[in-house]
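Onboarding guide, step 5: your first structure request.
Type a short instruction followed by the sequence, for example:

Predict the 3D structure of this protein.
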Amino acid sequence: MYTLNANEAKTKFGAMLMKVQSEPVEIIKNGSPVAVVVSLDEYNKIEQLKMELVKSRFENIDESDLVDGKTFREELNAGKYD
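The system replies with structure tokens like these:
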């Protein structure tokens, strides 16, 4: 992955936009990674994969997997899904 510091990303924004068409660009600020810039095409692919994952999780659901909203909130607040 190509890496730029935050100042370089700002001053070389046009070049960075060109670079993300071929690979993600990591942005470093104060020595720590803070962001990754990707092309719109790559972003759309990631979003599609996330949607496919969500859909696959619902394909195998049955009545025993369902809870009412109040129960879910209580379980969520209790840390069951952490």
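Each response can be followed by summary notes, for example: The first strand starts at residue 2 and ends at 5.
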